Amino acid sequence: MGIYLENAATSFPKPYAVMKEMMEYMQNIGATSGRGAYKTAIEADRLIYNCRKMICKLFNGSDPAKVIFTSNITEALNVVINGFLKEGEHVITSSLTYWI
């Protein structure tokens, strides 16, 4: 796979592992996290929570519940700018995405 440095409005190219996992999710789970108590919705919740735990560990965080996901950098910045943070808290962001 080649290097792709302009990833602001797209998500191309996707590594094979990402495509494989997304296909697995769409074929076997397909539920929206946080919207139900049935088996596949609970599995979607578990996947999201495990992702939060891994990101929390990566950044040496103390609480996976404080890891949030947004649709894009604009939404993330608006959440922060509009008073999400309390004094003394911090946010780690990056506008850089690249594939090698």
Describe the structure.
There is one protein chain. This protein is an all-alpha fold. The protein has one domain (1-99). The chain is 45% helix and 0% strand. It contains three helices and no strands. It has helices at residues 16-28, 39-58, 73-84. The chain is globular and about 45 Å long. 0% of the residues are buried. The model has no long low-confidence stretch (mean pLDDT 81). It is an enzyme of class 2 (transferase). GO terms for molecular function: cysteine desulfurase activity. InterPro entries: Aminotrans_V_dom (IPR000192), PyrdxlP-dep_Trfase (IPR015424), PyrdxlP-dep_Trfase_major (IPR015421), PyrdxlP-dep_Trfase_small (IPR015422). Keywords: Transferase. It catalyses: (sulfur carrier)-H + L-cysteine = (sulfur carrier)-SH + L-alanine.
Radius of gyration: 16 Å
The proportion of residues forming helix, as a percent range, comes to 40-55%
The chain-level structural class is: mainly alpha
Averaged pLDDT, please? 81
Question: Helical segment tally?
Answer: 3
User: Can you tell me the number of structural domains?
Assistant: 1
Share of residues in strands: under 5%
Which runs of at least 5 residues are low in confidence (pLDDT < 50)? Answer: none
Main sheet overview? none
Gap between N and C termini, in Å?
A: 7 Å
Q: What is the tally of beta strands?
A: 0
Shape: globular
Order of helices and strands: HHH
Cofactor: pyridoxal 5'-phosphate
Protein name: Putative cysteine desulfurase
Catalytic activity: (sulfur carrier)-H + L-cysteine = (sulfur carrier)-SH + L-alanine
Domain Aminotransferase class V: 3-98
